Amino acid sequence: MQDFHLKVGDVFRFAKTVGESDVYLFAGITGDLSPNHVDEQEMARTAYGGRIAHGALIVGYMSACSTMATAGARAGGETPVSLGYDRIRFLRAVRIGDTIRVVYRVAEIDPARRRAVADVRVTNQRDELVAVAAHILQWTPAPLAGDTQIQPPGVDLAPPVGHSRPAD
Questions:
Q1: What is the pLDDT of residues 89-103, one digit of tens each?
Q2: Edge-to-edge strand order for the sheet containing 129-141?
Q3: What is the model's pTM?
Q4: Structural domain boundaries of the chain?
Q5: In whole angstroms, what is the distance from residue 139 CA to residue 36 CA?
Q6: Interhelix angle for 55-70 vs 20-30, to 10°?
Q7: Under DSSP, is residue 10 helix (H, G, I), strand (E, B) or coil?
Q8: Which fold has domain 11-19+53-141?
Q9: CA–CA gap between residue 151 and residue 2 (Å, rounded)
Q10: Each residue of 28-63: pLDDT tens digit?
């Protein structure tokens, strides 16, 4: 296994103007057709002054940076996967037409567990902080031919005690 793919302090950036099509396509894909996202007249009467983007869409933009962070990692015989986002907070609304900027900074590396944690900050065109999160990445050994599931090191895929997996 090679040296770790990232180092503390590595930074990845992504910027995008959130368009009406982004919000409507996301609403259609997810089924989240809340008036918050698709009803301009109703939302114009609120403190937001109009429609706002889905928080999960903003997390999706965070994921663009994790993709940048893991580019080229597969060549080392490992597969980078997201273990999730912790401490996600949506601090301000993102309106249609806002330009968001994601800064993804590697904060911790645990080479023994093959994990990295990044601090993620999202700002708008006025440099206002709109969202924050901590993202956990795991590098897993590449599966052997024929394997359909691989258990990442340190991740228990069994259901919690008292719960069962749904039937296939």
A1: 999 999 999 999 999
A2: 11-17, 99-110, 115-123, 129-141, 78-90
A3: 0.80
A4: 11-19+53-141
A5: 37
A6: 100
A7: coil
A8: Thiol Ester Dehydrase; Chain A (3.10.129)
A9: 20
A10: 999 989 989 999 999 999 999 999 999 999 999 999
